[in-house]
Design brief:
The protein has about 90 residues and is mostly beta strands. It contains one helix and five strands.
Length: about 90
Amino acid sequence: MQDYIIFGHGYEGEVREYDDNLDVIRVVSKPVLIKAGDPTPASAVLRTFDLQVVVMSCLGKFYNVAAESLPTEDELKIAIMQENPSPVPQR
């Protein structure tokens, strides 16, 4: 199992564990939170999305990144510092 840093469809650098060396992972969209008493109806529809996986270099190590669009270097650094994913060998 390897760590994958996920960006897009409500994910902002969260880490999830999947099988090794995947080229695509499937994620479920994150629900939108609303405030209590908000008159806007909540959308209860959850959808699945396939995200392409790339191995990105950051801070001298390599990480699996699954993204709708690739994160900036700063976004990736923040995710690594906050979530502490395990690096992977370069593919």
